[in-house]
Amino acid sequence: MVCDALNLRRAVLAVALAAAFLPYSHAGEISGTLSFVKKPPSVVLVYMADDTGADKGKKRKLDQKDQQFTKKMLVAPKGSKISFINSDNTDHNVYAADTDAGADFDIGLAPPGSTIDQEVNWAENAVIRVGCKIHPKMRAYVATVDSRYNQVLELDRTKQDHTFALEVPDTVTLVRVWLPNYEPVEFTLEKGGEHKVDLIKKGKVYGTLTVSRK
Amino acid sequence: MCLKAFVRSPFRGLWLVLGLLLITPLAAQPPIGTPDEFDIEYPDDEEPSAEQVALGKTLFFDTRLSGKQNMSCASCHNPDLGFGDGLEKGVGSDGTILGRNTPHLYNLAWNALFFWDGRAASLEEQALGPIESDVEMNLQLPELIKRLKAVPFYQKHFAEAYPDQKPAISETTIGHAIASFERTLISDNAPFDRFMKGETEAMSEEARRGMALFLGKARCINCHNGPNFTDNGFHNIGVASGDVGRAAVQKGVTTQGAFKTPGLRNVLLTGPYMHDGSIGSLGAVVQHYIDAPKKGGKLSPQMEKIELSDLEILDLVAFMGALTDPVPVTPAKVP
């Protein structure tokens, strides 16, 4: 009996200590459905815009293989570095020319096997397109997002409905959703809430986004 | 199968090609094959309506689109000449010889950038360029709009094709209609496509050997890859024309003297070849790829040194011939 009480006290203490030293608590999740009336975009970014805890010291990587970028989108906070890797057997290049976001770089000729670093030194909360000057069909996006709570959805373009789920702490409530060529979506979502919004491109509705939080 | 039996097999060319196709993914180029219409990127993901395509076809053949009303899009992009003009370099409405060869229009629906130097980011933008160019069709778009508005046929058909657009006749709708027609110029049933579907006799023995060379020893696949036999890229291949090409549009170490890789579908119909139309036959084109790397210069790294016998050159030409699937177009009745 004395032994059980001791164990219980130890367990309570362990839980209390763990809670005290956790930098944040994953108290719930947001989940959503994207439904498109036509062919969906290739990629969607969902993130909690009121978090700024992303690790700027961590180097992000974007690789090139089979004359494609291996990811459709890379999330990297301003001040971090991106390593552009060429794992192809052909020369490549990576450049950006987004005057609105102040992203203007060209890593030059990137031979097979090379890795070239580029500092993310342009606007925060921007999504820029990077490409290859040799192979213009190669395209990817880089999102300068500080948030740790983000998810990149690479969509199967043969399907019109897509779902996602993202673990988030109670402390963040501002949801942002970015889709190429669509109007950006932003709304506040509290625990237990639900939000439905049209997905608009050039003034026309091309889909809906429904997000709930638990 | 022992080696002797393999050599005697009537299907040895097929086995070689299939073997190379299996190896191709390791070579990291997008595989050759038949293009998939699902992969076409329409503006705003909207497939054009039949009315828009028909209107675009009429505009394509209408000489009202040139200042002197003596030239239509089809004058240079002649459907009976592989959507080219058969000339070394294009000729403008006043007889001016242009700087570059007239590109063909096959399978542009899958293309990324347009013109030899890629200066147009969409087919819509490209379609309007030659109309306004003072050395080509030499007609400013406001004047063209005025001309079209004066024709009852165009008033009616623009209004029907673009009911949401006000005004219905505009730079946007003219460009969209012409581009919509051009995106229908699809060639996807060549002997090569039938061969890939399993019709082994669709390609001759020579063409099958040529395909193995294309994918292997001749390294054509370095740039002429994917379903339309183009990487949509820009490369300096050592055609000494003094033209800076892509570098005039986009600076960078990779763009000097670089020109767009043309797709090879119906290439037999689209001569003469190269951005300056300086090579008259496909055999001579292959010979250029043998000779240019030996001369040195700032060539694209894709231009590997190759050696081919005369017979192998003929086999490659036979394979390129197997990419032939003409797109017959009856000229539209112009109002």
TrEMBL record, chain A:
Question: For this UniProt entry, which residues form the secretion signal?
Answer: 1-27
Top-rank lineage group of the source organism: Bacteria
Could you tell me the keywords of this UniProt record? Signal
Q: What is this protein called?
A: Uncharacterized protein
